[in-house]
């Protein structure tokens, strides 16, 4: 029985190399004069709402979109992302 589809790391050592995924929750575009006024406890409004999707990037390539969630159980309070869209191999969503 060929189980190579279930254990791809046997044939390719790169499958066990970790990558960093950046989660983008939004952007801010303050004027420089407003940026210079920021102090502790300042609030910087983003261009998105809490319920809007977040974007997942590897480098500068968009790989997926999802929704922020709070973990439960042993990881209560930790943020996570539930994927709602995943790019195909060509990288297009």
What can you see in these coordinates?
- Keywords: Cell membrane, Cell projection, Chemotaxis, Cilium, Flagellar rotation, Flagellum, Membrane.
- Belongs to the FliN/MopA/SpaO family.
- Residues 17-86 form the Flagellar motor switch protein FliN-like C-terminal domain.
- It comes from Pseudooceanicola marinus.
- The chain is extended.
- It has one helix spanning 32-36; strands at 22-24, 54-58, 61-70, 79-86.
- The protein is mainly beta.
- Helices cover 5% and strands 28% of the residues.
- It has one domain: Roll (Surface presentation of antigens (SPOA)).
- A hairpin with a 2-residue loop joins strand 2 and strand 3 (61-70).
- Residues 1-5 have low confidence and may be disordered.
- Strands 1-2-3-4 form a four-stranded antiparallel beta sheet, with no helix packed on it.
- It is built from one helix and four strands.
- The longest helix has 5 residues, at 32-36.
The largest β sheet comes out as: 4 strands, antiparallel
- Principal-axis shape equals extended
> Which value, in Å, is the CA radius of gyration?
19 Å
Q: What percentage of residues falls in helices of 4 or more residues? A: under 10%
The number of helices is 1
Query: How far is the first residue's CA from the last residue's CA?
Result: 35 Å
Q: Any guess at the CATH architecture?
A: Roll
Protein name: Flagellar motor switch protein FliN
Membrane topology: Peripheral membrane protein
GO biological process, one term: bacterial-type flagellum-dependent cell motility
InterPro entries: FliN-like_C, FliN/MopA/SpaO, FliN_T3SS_HrcQb, SpoA-like_sf
């Amino acid at each position: 029985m060929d189980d190579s589809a279930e254990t791809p790391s046997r044939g390719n050592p790169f499958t066990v190399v970790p990558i960093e995924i950046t989660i983008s929750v939004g952007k801010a575009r303050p004027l420089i004069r407003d940026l210079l006024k920021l102090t502790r406890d300042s609030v910087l409004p983003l261009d998105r709402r809490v319920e809007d999707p977040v974007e997942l990037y590897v480098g500068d390539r968009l790989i997926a979109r999802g929704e922020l969630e709070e973990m439960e159980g042993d990881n209560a309070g930790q943020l996570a992302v539930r994927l709602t869209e995943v790019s195909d191999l060509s990288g297009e969503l």
